[in-house]
Backbone:
């Protein structure tokens, strides 16, 4: 039931991943990521969904000994971003990430959002200020912090900190945004805010989200992938996965019989 | 019987023997608490005892010598026939050697900490860190003679007019000596910065250097400042290196090319002689010690304030 009219933003082909310990965390995972859609990854703890997500911005490069096999092709470049000739920093400049726990830097609200621009060498004060405002508005945080942008970011509430991290990731106009269980450390109201925000963001960019919360995947995503023990068990549009899953294992997991 | 009135009735309560206070356990707990408190208090008590003796003996000194003479006099010759009691030459010697040492140790120690924490591989760190920390174990007298017999002759090749006893050589070697204090404490502070913060920075497309400088260092500021405070206290209080290599001639100068005595060098020099108890020369040790104590305390307070300010700002 996959809509073939939607352009592909990225796809993984036979992706294997090995941790330095030798443990194979991903086994031949192939999956499309459609442009301006939200793709949700669900599955029990340890199934490899976070590992899969972190391949997209080459986060595993930070730890020695990790090894990728296979391809993650990014469009429109038609480039395998796991290739040795590809600069991980360039990849991260186009594929940004929001983490499980809000991780603001020990800086002011303004400087947190401006970080990506500063790292890119942007020095024009006007440009930085405009971009920061735009990103804070995009993350639905502007009204709450516009009068205290010089305050320390740690003074914000957990939900605000997470939206700040989203603003930080937005400020550099990424093409894909990765969310690693973005609401698992937040209360229900903050969670609802973030979910609404993600639905909004879909018009601007492509989203890949890992979630433990089945309702969340059903609420916000267009496509859902169910992973188990490093393998892609089932992939399809979200309605189909949640109403008529093709596999028994998927149904068991979704209905809570397992996991 | 009306049960609804039951809760309001006064019942004569007794303490069941099974719920009664256990006397033996109570005494044991109290005893343990007391022993723990004694251990903690011993350090506090020693500090107070030192301060009390410093103050007491200095009081005797300042009865004979006015504070004005002590702080404005330009000569320190308590043991001479023509005695002068101006502490300034000792302070200038202490500050100059400490400044030279810190000029060496702060940049090298900080850069070393950044390297070890953010750039070095696990293996490099495992090898380098113990070697650096070994420096701490070298007796300071060895550093003193290293300065006097190796560094000074080397420096004299560059500056032929450099005297055999000089503050430059003593300060430089003292700087090398305290590098491990800074690098070790600062590195621990940097390593304590959570990995999630680094990942956040890398995920924004930052390089290692940008991450180290813009995220890890500000996050570890309070620990890094703590390392500097420790280093300052070490430099100001260091005795053997300066006593051996900088000479013991009190001289009011900030020129590193001169030889001079520091407060500590004076104390060790006089303490090794045989001064009669209660004499003014004997008491001058305590006056000098009090000044040293106040200086160290001052630097610690400044460091504390700076630390507070930075933890608030970042």
Residues:
């Amino acid at each position: 039931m996959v809509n073939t009219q939607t352009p592909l933003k990225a796809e993984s082909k036979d992706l294997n991943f090995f941790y330095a310990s030798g443990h194979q965390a991903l086994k031949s995972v192939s999956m499309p990521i459609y442009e301006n859609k939200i793709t949700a990854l669900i599955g029990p703890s340890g199934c490899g969904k976070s590992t899969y997500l972190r391949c997209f911005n080459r986060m595993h490069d930070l730890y020695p000994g990790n090894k990728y096999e296979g391809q993650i092709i990014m469009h429109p470049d038609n480039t395998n971003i796991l290739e040795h000739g590809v600069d991980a920093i360039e990849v991260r400049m186009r594929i940004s990430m929001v983490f499980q726990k809000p991780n603001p830097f020990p800086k002011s609200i303004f400087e947190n959002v401006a970080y990506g621009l500063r790292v890119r060498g942007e020095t024009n004060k006007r440009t930085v200020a405009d971009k920061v405002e735009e990103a804070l508005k995009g993350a639905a945080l502007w009204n709450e912090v516009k009068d205290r942008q010089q305050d320390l970011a740690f003074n914000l509430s957990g939900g605000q900190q997470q939206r700040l991290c989203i603003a930080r990731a937005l400020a550099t106009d990424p093409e894909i945004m990765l969310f690693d269980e973005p609401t698992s450390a937040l209360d229900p109201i903050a969670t609802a805010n973030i979910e609404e925000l993600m639905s909004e963001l879909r018009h601007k960019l492509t989203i890949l989200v890992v979630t433990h919360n089945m309702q969340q995947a059903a609420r916000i995503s267009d496509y859902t992938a169910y992973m188990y023990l490093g393998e892609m068990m089932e992939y399809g549009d979200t309605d189909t996965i949640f109403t008529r899953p093709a596999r028994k294992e998927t149904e068991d997991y979704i209905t809570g019989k397992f996991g | 019987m009306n049960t609804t009135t039951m809760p309001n009735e006064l019942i004569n309560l007794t303490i069941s023997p099974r719920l009664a206070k256990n006397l033996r356990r109570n005494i044991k707990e109290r005893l343990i608490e007391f022993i723990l408190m004694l251990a903690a208090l011993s350090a506090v008590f020693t500090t107070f005892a030192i301060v009390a003796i410093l103050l007491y003996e200095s009081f005797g000194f300042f009865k004979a010598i006015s504070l004005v003479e002590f702080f404005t006099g330009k000569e320190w010759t308590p043991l001479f026939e023509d005695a002068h009691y101006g502490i300034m030459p000792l302070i200038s010697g202490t500050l100059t050697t400490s400044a030279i040492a810190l000029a060496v140790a702060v940049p090298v120690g900080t850069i070393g900490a950044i390297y070890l924490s953010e750039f070095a591989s696990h293996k490099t760190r495992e090898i380098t860190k113990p070697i650096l920390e070994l420096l701490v174990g070298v007796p300071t007298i060895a550093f003193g003679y290293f300065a006097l017999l190796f560094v000074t002759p080397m420096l004299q090749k560059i500056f032929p007019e450099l005297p055999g006893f000089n503050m430059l050589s003593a300060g430089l070697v003292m700087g090398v000596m305290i590098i491990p204090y800074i690098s070790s404490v600062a590195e621990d502070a940097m390593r304590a910065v959570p990995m999630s913060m680094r990942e956040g920075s890398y995920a924004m497309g930052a390089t290692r250097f940008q991450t180290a400088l813009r995220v890890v260092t500000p996050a570890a500021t309070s620990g890094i400042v703590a390392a500097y405070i420790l280093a300052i206290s070490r430099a100001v209080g260091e005795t053997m290196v300066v006593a051996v290599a900088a000479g013991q001639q009190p001289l009011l100068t900030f020129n590193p090319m001169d030889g001079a005595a520091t407060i500590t060098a004076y104390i060790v020099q006089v303490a090794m002689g045989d001064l009669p108890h209660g004499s003014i020369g004997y008491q001058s040790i305590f006056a000098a010690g009090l000044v040293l104590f106040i200086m160290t305390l001052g630097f610690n307070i400044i460091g504390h304030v700076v630390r507070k300010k930075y933890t608030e700002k970042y």
